[in-house]
Amino acid sequence: MLAFLLRLAWVLTVPSRPVGDFALYREAAEHLLDQGRLGDEFVYMPGYVMVLAAVRALGGELLAYKLVGVVAGTLVVFAAGGIAGALFGRRAGIIATALMAVWPAGIASASVTGTDMPAGALGALAVHALVARGGQRQGEGEWRAAALSGLIFGLAAWVRAVAAPLAGLSLLYWLARGTRWPVALARTAAAVAIAFLVLLPWGLRNHRVYGDLFFTDSHGGHTALVGANPNSEGTYSRSLNLMFTKGTGYRLFEPPARHRQSDRVAYQVAKTWTAFEPTYAVGLLVAKADRLLTHEKNLLYWPVFRQGVLDYAPRAFFDAHRLALERITDLFWWMVAALAAAGVALCAHQRGPSWRPALVALAILVFPAALMAIYAAFFAEVRYHLAIVPLLIPYAAFAVDAAWTGATAAMAA
Question: Which residues contact 220 (CB under 8 A, 6 or more apart)?
């Protein structure tokens, strides 16, 4: 409840407007509702746009769009607390829920009408379904966990395509639990199959539009190109669009018949740039990882500090308090990151009867690690970090719980 109220209060108090990509999603939703189809130049996953279109069909406006972020932010809190509770016990679950509820960057991002928070919520819910139901030792409950996690990963992939293959990483979880190889493989295969079955309507749509059956968006190659651009150190620049068009004859946004060709050419250029100077590419990889993970203050850019997001009076207020807000946001993240690292170290040093649960907890790290690796390899913005934090908070909560237990024992001795 606290998480919901804090995010709702933020949305009602801060009158931000969607700009850039966030305005594009809103326009795409209105086009979908008016025309009954996605626009010819739409190259993203359609899940979030479909949700906005449904909200618009029910009479919702910008505030209702923002409430999607409020609900998603609340679900993220629920999922992180549930994961911590399933892995480390009830008290760790309560601690994780409290940490997530007051997460400054998570509260601020609730008003951003984008895919990051909904995708993060669904991804965290998929992991929660896996560990909460998978913890039931009955065979039927474990199969339900595999199926439910695959279903939610599939729904998450409608928002961000990267979610679907994450279902395959559940194999490590089942093996860590001591499941026999054939059964672990079967459960993982079931999760992956369900995830892609959920995505099948999108794949069939792509086959109809492009003549090619695929389950992703149509701009992954362009994303990789931006991330490999040595002239901008892997960040977006408008000059890249012009250079790409003059060098290849393709534009970023092409008619549907040329979407796939343009994207494939962009991916080939990205691979060429990476192979040309591998040492620089490794340095760029480190820079992108740094951009993704080091600071959370940059998450305040989209809801309050980007040009055009706020009118003069509220913008002046936030500008006057910018340094304090950025420090609070970064300090909270650095505290969580340090606690999460401590929690992982505590898991790694578990021995005796607690060895198996600790191994299970360490296996779940594969999900945030995979997201970090994918985003750092292709293209990294700090807002992609919103899907990673909920999967690290449980380890931070475990560290706090362990410190509390140790302090209590020391005082009682």
Answer: 161, 263, 267, 378
